[in-house]
Design goal:
Layout (H helix, E strand, L loop, with lengths): L1 E5 L13 H22 L3 E4 L11 H22 L4 E4 L6 E2 L2 E2 L12 E3 L7 E2 L4 E5 L5 H15 L4 E6 L1 E3 L10 E3 H5 L5 E5 L5 E5 L5 E4 L15 E6 L5 E6 L5 E8 L6 H22 L3 E10 L11 H9 L3 E12 L6 H4 L4 H4 L6 H19 L9 H16 L4 H4 L1
Parallel strand pairs: 1-2, 2-3, 3-6, 8-9, 9-12, 10-11, 12-14, 17-18, 18-19
Antiparallel strand pairs: 1-15, 4-5, 7-8, 13-14, 15-16
Bound molecules: manganese (II) ion (MN).
Length: 413
Protein backbone atom coordinates (compact mmCIF):
# COMPACT_ATOMS: atom_id res chain seq x y z
CA UNK A 1 0.00 0.00 0.00
CA UNK A 2 1.17 3.48 -0.82
CA UNK A 3 0.32 6.61 1.15
CA UNK A 4 0.79 10.29 0.37
CA UNK A 5 1.10 12.45 3.48
CA UNK A 6 0.54 16.20 3.14
CA UNK A 7 -0.23 19.07 5.45
CA UNK A 8 -0.68 22.82 5.60
CA UNK A 9 -1.45 23.65 1.98
CA UNK A 10 -3.04 26.96 3.09
CA UNK A 11 -4.90 27.44 -0.19
CA UNK A 12 -5.86 31.10 -0.53
CA UNK A 13 -3.14 32.53 1.67
CA UNK A 14 -2.59 36.15 0.63
CA UNK A 15 -0.18 37.45 3.27
CA UNK A 16 1.70 39.80 2.83
CA UNK A 17 -1.27 41.64 1.35
CA UNK A 18 0.96 43.86 -0.77
CA UNK A 19 1.65 40.81 -2.94
CA UNK A 20 -1.62 38.98 -2.31
CA UNK A 21 -2.12 37.75 -5.87
CA UNK A 22 1.42 36.39 -6.14
CA UNK A 23 0.98 34.60 -2.84
CA UNK A 24 -2.39 33.06 -3.70
CA UNK A 25 -0.97 31.81 -6.98
CA UNK A 26 2.08 30.30 -5.26
CA UNK A 27 -0.03 28.35 -2.75
CA UNK A 28 -2.40 27.04 -5.42
CA UNK A 29 0.48 26.06 -7.64
CA UNK A 30 2.14 24.04 -4.87
CA UNK A 31 -1.09 22.07 -4.51
CA UNK A 32 -1.21 21.41 -8.25
CA UNK A 33 2.41 20.23 -8.19
CA UNK A 34 1.70 17.93 -5.25
CA UNK A 35 -1.38 16.53 -6.98
CA UNK A 36 0.65 15.86 -10.14
CA UNK A 37 3.27 13.99 -8.11
CA UNK A 38 0.64 12.00 -6.17
CA UNK A 39 -1.01 10.89 -9.41
CA UNK A 40 2.37 9.97 -10.82
CA UNK A 41 3.18 7.88 -7.74
CA UNK A 42 -0.19 6.12 -7.73
CA UNK A 43 -1.10 6.35 -4.05
CA UNK A 44 -3.89 4.33 -2.39
CA UNK A 45 -4.49 6.75 0.49
CA UNK A 46 -3.93 10.47 0.77
CA UNK A 47 -3.69 11.94 4.26
CA UNK A 48 -4.39 15.69 4.45
CA UNK A 49 -3.30 16.70 7.94
CA UNK A 50 -5.09 20.02 8.33
CA UNK A 51 -4.97 23.63 7.08
CA UNK A 52 -5.91 22.68 3.56
CA UNK A 53 -7.33 26.20 3.45
CA UNK A 54 -5.99 29.48 4.77
CA UNK A 55 -9.30 30.78 6.08
CA UNK A 56 -12.85 29.76 6.75
CA UNK A 57 -14.17 32.19 4.17
CA UNK A 58 -12.45 32.14 0.83
CA UNK A 59 -13.20 33.17 -2.71
CA UNK A 60 -15.47 30.53 -4.21
CA UNK A 61 -13.11 29.76 -7.08
CA UNK A 62 -10.44 28.68 -4.59
CA UNK A 63 -12.79 26.25 -2.90
CA UNK A 64 -13.74 24.98 -6.35
CA UNK A 65 -10.04 24.66 -7.14
CA UNK A 66 -9.43 22.48 -4.06
CA UNK A 67 -12.44 20.34 -4.86
CA UNK A 68 -11.31 19.89 -8.47
CA UNK A 69 -7.73 19.02 -7.54
CA UNK A 70 -8.88 16.31 -5.11
CA UNK A 71 -11.23 14.94 -7.74
CA UNK A 72 -8.35 14.94 -10.21
CA UNK A 73 -6.35 12.70 -7.85
CA UNK A 74 -9.22 10.21 -7.71
CA UNK A 75 -9.99 10.26 -11.43
CA UNK A 76 -6.46 10.15 -12.80
CA UNK A 77 -5.21 7.59 -10.28
CA UNK A 78 -7.97 5.29 -11.46
CA UNK A 79 -7.23 6.02 -15.12
CA UNK A 80 -3.50 5.57 -14.87
CA UNK A 81 -3.08 2.99 -12.13
CA UNK A 82 -6.46 1.27 -12.14
CA UNK A 83 -7.02 1.77 -8.44
CA UNK A 84 -9.43 3.65 -6.25
CA UNK A 85 -7.94 6.26 -3.99
CA UNK A 86 -9.15 7.34 -0.56
CA UNK A 87 -8.51 10.87 0.64
CA UNK A 88 -8.72 11.50 4.39
CA UNK A 89 -8.82 15.04 5.75
CA UNK A 90 -8.83 16.69 9.17
CA UNK A 91 -9.62 20.27 10.14
CA UNK A 92 -6.70 22.55 10.94
CA UNK A 93 -6.88 25.79 12.90
CA UNK A 94 -7.02 27.76 9.65
CA UNK A 95 -9.85 25.72 8.14
CA UNK A 96 -12.38 27.09 10.60
CA UNK A 97 -14.00 26.06 13.85
CA UNK A 98 -15.92 22.95 14.85
CA UNK A 99 -19.25 22.76 12.97
CA UNK A 100 -18.20 25.56 10.64
CA UNK A 101 -15.22 24.96 8.45
CA UNK A 102 -14.18 25.30 4.83
CA UNK A 103 -13.91 21.53 4.47
CA UNK A 104 -17.73 21.47 4.44
CA UNK A 105 -17.62 22.96 0.97
CA UNK A 106 -15.49 20.22 -0.54
CA UNK A 107 -17.69 17.43 0.78
CA UNK A 108 -19.96 16.10 -1.91
CA UNK A 109 -22.43 13.22 -1.88
CA UNK A 110 -20.81 11.80 -5.00
CA UNK A 111 -17.25 12.24 -3.76
CA UNK A 112 -17.00 8.75 -2.26
CA UNK A 113 -13.20 8.99 -2.42
CA UNK A 114 -13.17 11.75 0.20
CA UNK A 115 -13.56 11.28 3.94
CA UNK A 116 -13.60 14.39 6.13
CA UNK A 117 -13.41 13.59 9.84
CA UNK A 118 -16.23 14.89 12.00
CA UNK A 119 -15.79 16.31 15.49
CA UNK A 120 -16.80 13.06 17.19
CA UNK A 121 -13.58 11.43 15.93
CA UNK A 122 -15.44 8.40 14.67
CA UNK A 123 -12.70 6.35 13.00
CA UNK A 124 -12.55 5.71 9.30
CA UNK A 125 -12.35 1.95 8.73
CA UNK A 126 -12.03 -0.21 5.65
CA UNK A 127 -10.44 -3.56 4.84
CA UNK A 128 -6.91 -2.14 4.91
CA UNK A 129 -6.75 0.23 7.83
CA UNK A 130 -8.41 2.19 10.60
CA UNK A 131 -7.70 5.91 10.74
CA UNK A 132 -8.49 8.23 13.61
CA UNK A 133 -8.47 11.90 12.62
CA UNK A 134 -8.22 14.46 15.38
CA UNK A 135 -9.33 17.90 14.26
CA UNK A 136 -7.66 21.00 15.70
CA UNK A 137 -8.46 22.16 19.21
CA UNK A 138 -6.68 24.84 21.23
CA UNK A 139 -6.14 22.28 23.98
CA UNK A 140 -4.91 19.60 21.65
CA UNK A 141 -3.52 17.45 24.49
CA UNK A 142 -6.90 17.31 26.26
CA UNK A 143 -8.73 16.72 22.97
CA UNK A 144 -6.39 13.86 22.17
CA UNK A 145 -7.00 12.18 25.54
CA UNK A 146 -10.75 12.66 25.34
CA UNK A 147 -11.44 11.95 21.65
CA UNK A 148 -8.62 10.28 19.80
CA UNK A 149 -6.90 8.02 22.31
CA UNK A 150 -9.94 5.91 23.27
CA UNK A 151 -10.90 5.52 19.60
CA UNK A 152 -7.38 4.56 18.66
CA UNK A 153 -7.01 2.11 21.54
CA UNK A 154 -10.16 0.30 20.47
CA UNK A 155 -9.14 0.14 16.83
CA UNK A 156 -7.66 -3.02 15.32
CA UNK A 157 -5.31 -3.71 12.42
CA UNK A 158 -3.22 -1.04 10.75
CA UNK A 159 -3.89 1.97 12.97
CA UNK A 160 -3.25 5.46 11.64
CA UNK A 161 -3.56 8.65 13.66
CA UNK A 162 -3.90 12.06 12.00
CA UNK A 163 -3.36 15.13 14.17
CA UNK A 164 -3.21 18.87 13.56
CA UNK A 165 -1.01 19.91 16.48
CA UNK A 166 2.53 20.04 17.79
CA UNK A 167 4.35 16.99 19.15
CA UNK A 168 6.89 17.58 21.91
CA UNK A 169 10.24 15.89 21.36
CA UNK A 170 9.65 15.70 17.62
CA UNK A 171 8.60 19.18 16.48
CA UNK A 172 10.29 22.26 17.92
CA UNK A 173 7.29 23.41 19.91
CA UNK A 174 7.05 27.20 20.31
CA UNK A 175 6.90 28.46 23.90
CA UNK A 176 3.46 28.42 25.59
CA UNK A 177 1.97 26.18 22.89
CA UNK A 178 -0.04 23.10 23.71
CA UNK A 179 1.39 19.86 22.40
CA UNK A 180 1.24 16.09 22.55
CA UNK A 181 4.11 13.91 23.74
CA UNK A 182 5.54 10.90 21.94
CA UNK A 183 4.75 8.67 24.95
CA UNK A 184 1.17 9.88 25.07
CA UNK A 185 0.75 8.99 21.41
CA UNK A 186 2.56 5.65 21.69
CA UNK A 187 0.18 4.45 24.44
CA UNK A 188 -2.58 4.00 21.88
CA UNK A 189 -0.22 1.88 19.75
CA UNK A 190 -0.62 3.50 16.33
CA UNK A 191 1.36 2.12 13.39
CA UNK A 192 1.55 5.53 11.73
CA UNK A 193 1.07 9.04 13.06
CA UNK A 194 0.82 11.85 10.49
CA UNK A 195 0.78 15.41 11.79
CA UNK A 196 0.20 18.92 10.49
CA UNK A 197 0.42 22.38 12.10
CA UNK A 198 4.21 22.34 12.40
CA UNK A 199 5.37 23.85 9.10
CA UNK A 200 8.89 22.53 8.99
CA UNK A 201 9.48 19.07 7.58
CA UNK A 202 10.48 16.48 10.20
CA UNK A 203 11.92 13.17 8.99
CA UNK A 204 10.19 9.92 10.03
CA UNK A 205 10.92 8.83 13.58
CA UNK A 206 10.14 5.63 15.48
CA UNK A 207 7.68 5.87 18.36
CA UNK A 208 8.27 4.11 21.68
CA UNK A 209 5.67 1.48 20.67
CA UNK A 210 7.47 0.75 17.39
CA UNK A 211 5.15 2.84 15.20
CA UNK A 212 6.23 5.78 13.07
CA UNK A 213 5.60 9.51 13.26
CA UNK A 214 5.91 11.89 10.34
CA UNK A 215 5.45 15.66 9.83
CA UNK A 216 5.68 16.71 6.17
CA UNK A 217 5.48 20.49 6.89
CA UNK A 218 3.79 23.12 4.75
CA UNK A 219 3.69 22.94 0.95
CA UNK A 220 4.82 26.53 0.40
CA UNK A 221 6.75 29.16 2.32
CA UNK A 222 4.20 30.36 4.86
CA UNK A 223 6.05 33.54 5.82
CA UNK A 224 9.45 35.21 5.79
CA UNK A 225 10.51 33.47 8.98
CA UNK A 226 10.26 30.02 7.40
CA UNK A 227 13.07 28.27 5.65
CA UNK A 228 13.94 24.84 4.41
CA UNK A 229 12.63 22.59 1.73
CA UNK A 230 8.90 22.27 1.07
CA UNK A 231 7.10 19.15 -0.11
CA UNK A 232 5.39 15.98 1.14
CA UNK A 233 6.04 12.30 1.88
CA UNK A 234 5.20 9.10 0.06
CA UNK A 235 5.07 6.14 2.44
CA UNK A 236 5.21 2.58 1.20
CA UNK A 237 3.71 0.38 3.87
CA UNK A 238 5.77 -2.78 3.67
CA UNK A 239 7.59 -5.06 6.16
CA UNK A 240 9.95 -2.16 6.76
CA UNK A 241 8.13 1.02 5.70
CA UNK A 242 9.83 3.15 3.07
CA UNK A 243 9.58 6.91 3.27
CA UNK A 244 10.23 9.03 0.22
CA UNK A 245 10.44 12.81 0.39
CA UNK A 246 8.93 14.58 -2.62
CA UNK A 247 10.24 18.16 -2.79
CA UNK A 248 8.10 20.89 -4.30
CA UNK A 249 10.03 23.86 -5.57
CA UNK A 250 8.61 27.14 -4.35
CA UNK A 251 7.27 29.44 -7.03
CA UNK A 252 9.07 32.48 -5.64
CA UNK A 253 12.21 33.11 -3.65
CA UNK A 254 11.23 34.49 -0.25
CA UNK A 255 14.07 35.88 1.81
CA UNK A 256 14.52 37.83 4.99
CA UNK A 257 17.69 39.87 5.50
CA UNK A 258 18.86 41.70 8.60
CA UNK A 259 20.85 44.86 9.06
CA UNK A 260 21.98 45.47 12.61
CA UNK A 261 24.38 47.95 14.10
CA UNK A 262 25.61 48.53 17.63
CA UNK A 263 26.98 51.97 16.75
CA UNK A 264 24.77 54.89 15.87
CA UNK A 265 24.82 55.55 12.15
CA UNK A 266 23.65 58.18 9.70
CA UNK A 267 20.53 57.75 7.55
CA UNK A 268 22.87 57.56 4.59
CA UNK A 269 24.73 54.59 6.10
CA UNK A 270 21.43 52.72 6.58
CA UNK A 271 20.37 53.61 3.04
CA UNK A 272 23.58 52.20 1.58
CA UNK A 273 23.39 48.94 3.57
CA UNK A 274 19.78 48.44 2.52
CA UNK A 275 20.67 49.00 -1.12
CA UNK A 276 23.49 46.45 -0.84
CA UNK A 277 21.09 43.82 0.48
CA UNK A 278 18.60 44.50 -2.29
CA UNK A 279 21.33 44.33 -4.94
CA UNK A 280 22.58 41.05 -3.50
CA UNK A 281 19.07 39.61 -3.58
CA UNK A 282 18.52 40.80 -7.13
CA UNK A 283 21.64 38.97 -8.28
CA UNK A 284 20.49 35.82 -6.43
CA UNK A 285 17.20 36.02 -8.32
CA UNK A 286 19.08 36.47 -11.58
CA UNK A 287 21.07 33.27 -10.96
CA UNK A 288 18.01 31.21 -10.01
CA UNK A 289 15.92 32.85 -12.75
CA UNK A 290 13.02 32.97 -10.31
CA UNK A 291 11.02 35.96 -9.13
CA UNK A 292 11.03 36.72 -5.46
CA UNK A 293 10.41 39.03 -2.54
CA UNK A 294 12.68 40.35 0.14
CA UNK A 295 12.11 41.73 3.60
CA UNK A 296 14.91 43.71 5.20
CA UNK A 297 14.70 44.18 8.95
CA UNK A 298 16.74 47.14 10.05
CA UNK A 299 17.81 47.54 13.67
CA UNK A 300 20.02 50.19 15.24
CA UNK A 301 20.22 53.80 16.30
CA UNK A 302 20.45 56.91 14.18
CA UNK A 303 23.16 59.39 15.01
CA UNK A 304 21.25 62.18 13.29
CA UNK A 305 18.13 62.76 11.27
CA UNK A 306 14.97 60.64 11.28
CA UNK A 307 14.06 57.17 9.99
CA UNK A 308 12.23 59.00 7.20
CA UNK A 309 15.56 60.42 6.06
CA UNK A 310 16.75 56.97 5.00
CA UNK A 311 16.54 57.24 1.24
CA UNK A 312 14.59 54.30 -0.15
CA UNK A 313 14.05 55.76 -3.60
CA UNK A 314 16.92 53.71 -5.16
CA UNK A 315 15.24 50.56 -3.82
CA UNK A 316 11.88 51.57 -5.27
CA UNK A 317 13.59 52.20 -8.57
CA UNK A 318 15.17 48.73 -8.56
CA UNK A 319 11.78 47.14 -7.90
CA UNK A 320 10.23 49.12 -10.75
CA UNK A 321 13.01 48.21 -13.15
CA UNK A 322 13.76 44.59 -12.23
CA UNK A 323 11.04 42.17 -13.35
CA UNK A 324 12.23 39.42 -10.98
CA UNK A 325 12.12 41.66 -7.93
CA UNK A 326 8.42 41.46 -7.09
CA UNK A 327 8.46 43.22 -3.75
CA UNK A 328 10.89 44.62 -1.21
CA UNK A 329 9.70 45.44 2.27
CA UNK A 330 12.02 47.57 4.36
CA UNK A 331 11.13 47.34 8.03
CA UNK A 332 12.67 50.33 9.80
CA UNK A 333 10.54 50.07 12.95
CA UNK A 334 13.66 49.01 14.81
CA UNK A 335 15.59 52.14 13.87
CA UNK A 336 16.01 54.33 16.95
CA UNK A 337 15.84 58.11 16.95
CA UNK A 338 19.00 60.07 17.64
CA UNK A 339 19.68 61.25 21.18
CA UNK A 340 17.73 64.45 21.58
CA UNK A 341 20.58 66.87 22.12
CA UNK A 342 20.77 69.10 19.11
CA UNK A 343 17.17 68.68 18.07
CA UNK A 344 16.26 72.19 19.17
CA UNK A 345 18.71 73.76 16.73
CA UNK A 346 17.18 71.95 13.78
CA UNK A 347 13.67 72.89 14.60
CA UNK A 348 12.41 76.17 13.27
CA UNK A 349 8.74 75.48 12.81
CA UNK A 350 6.22 77.80 14.44
CA UNK A 351 3.95 75.21 15.99
CA UNK A 352 0.90 77.45 16.36
CA UNK A 353 1.16 78.46 12.71
CA UNK A 354 1.66 74.85 11.58
CA UNK A 355 -1.54 73.80 13.36
CA UNK A 356 -3.50 76.92 12.38
CA UNK A 357 -6.30 74.87 10.73
CA UNK A 358 -7.22 73.68 14.25
CA UNK A 359 -8.33 77.21 15.10
CA UNK A 360 -8.00 78.21 18.74
CA UNK A 361 -6.81 74.75 19.65
CA UNK A 362 -3.55 75.50 17.83
CA UNK A 363 -2.60 77.57 20.88
CA UNK A 364 -3.18 74.60 23.16
CA UNK A 365 -1.00 72.51 20.89
CA UNK A 366 1.72 75.09 20.98
CA UNK A 367 1.63 75.29 24.78
CA UNK A 368 1.64 71.56 25.23
CA UNK A 369 4.38 71.13 22.66
CA UNK A 370 6.56 73.58 24.57
CA UNK A 371 5.84 71.83 27.87
CA UNK A 372 6.61 68.39 26.53
CA UNK A 373 9.84 69.68 25.02
CA UNK A 374 10.80 71.20 28.33
CA UNK A 375 10.15 68.01 30.26
CA UNK A 376 12.03 65.98 27.66
CA UNK A 377 15.05 68.22 27.88
CA UNK A 378 15.10 68.07 31.67
CA UNK A 379 14.09 64.50 32.36
CA UNK A 380 14.43 62.28 29.29
CA UNK A 381 16.70 59.28 29.47
CA UNK A 382 20.04 59.92 27.82
CA UNK A 383 19.99 56.40 26.37
CA UNK A 384 16.57 56.32 24.77
CA UNK A 385 15.50 59.95 24.67
CA UNK A 386 12.21 58.88 26.27
CA UNK A 387 10.33 59.64 29.47
CA UNK A 388 9.37 57.05 32.06
CA UNK A 389 5.64 56.26 32.35
CA UNK A 390 5.32 58.27 35.59
CA UNK A 391 6.86 61.30 33.88
CA UNK A 392 4.64 60.83 30.85
CA UNK A 393 1.24 60.25 32.50
CA UNK A 394 0.66 63.83 33.79
CA UNK A 395 1.33 65.13 30.29
CA UNK A 396 -1.10 62.68 28.74
CA UNK A 397 -3.74 63.64 31.31
CA UNK A 398 -3.22 67.27 30.45
CA UNK A 399 -3.62 66.54 26.71
CA UNK A 400 -6.85 64.64 27.36
CA UNK A 401 -8.21 67.41 29.59
CA UNK A 402 -7.54 70.02 26.92
CA UNK A 403 -9.00 67.87 24.14
CA UNK A 404 -12.15 67.18 26.09
CA UNK A 405 -12.62 70.86 26.80
CA UNK A 406 -12.92 71.56 23.07
CA UNK A 407 -15.69 70.84 20.65
CA UNK A 408 -14.49 70.33 17.11
CA UNK A 409 -16.53 71.24 14.09
CA UNK A 410 -17.04 67.64 12.91
CA UNK A 411 -18.78 66.75 16.14
CA UNK A 412 -21.29 69.60 15.86
CA UNK A 413 -22.76 68.31 12.60
MN1 LIG B 1 -0.75 25.69 9.29
Amino acid sequence: MRFAVLADAHIGRSIPLAIAEHRRRAFSRSVTKAVDAIIEAGADYIFLCGDLFERRTLRPHLVQFAHDELYRIARETEERHGKKVTILAIRGNHDGRPQSDTLDYIKHPLADYLHVFEEDTKPYTDKNLTAVGLNYYDRIDAAYERLAKPALKEARGLKVLMVHGFVQGYNQVPPYSRSLTLDQIAEAEPVYVFTGHYHKRCPPRRLPNGGWILTPGSLEMYDFAESGEKGFYIVDDEEAPRFTWVPIESMHVMKQARIETERRRSPRWFGERILEEVELFRSELGRSEKPGYLRVRVRGGLKDGFPGDIDLEPVDRMVREGPLLLWVDIDTLGVGMPILAGVSEREQIDVAEFFAPFGEFAEDIQEMHARVREVLEEQASVQTGLLTPSQRIPLIDEWVRRLEARTFREEEQ
